[in-house]
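Because discrete structure vocabularies remain unfamiliar, we reproduce here a specimen of the format, pairing a chain with its fold in token form:
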Amino acid sequence: MKEKINIEERVERAVTLFKNGYNCSQSVVVAYADYFGLDEKTATRVSASFGGGMGRLREVCGAVSGSFMLAGMKYASTDPTDKEAKTKNYTVVQELAEKFRQHNGSIICRELLGLTQKKDNPVPSDRTPEYYKRRPCAEYVAIAARVIGEKLNEDD
């Protein structure tokens, strides 16, 4: 059994990472990387494509995807025939999605941001003070980091 996670420290770290320029998915994954013995560079790389709702396609929120990646670190099976482990993993993913949805009404990036287009320009937005005023993403990062932390603590 691992030591309980100080969730608010992880949430603060995730938000700080986001405000320092990491994307939403990277921010959540890197905030918990050490918990899984994952180095930050690897955590940053594996989660890089999920920002902006998966490469700015504005699909599933990157912060939510990051929490799903972390769920996979804890609950996934390496045996492709282990149906019980797969079921546990998918159950946890659905629980995480539902908790995030309860807080925000959706797990879809474009819906969360009130966007109408199906995908966005692949060029990331500049992180200016106006960006942070316009985009509630730091709050979504905080919620996703909190939800996964609560789940990890619940099962330890």
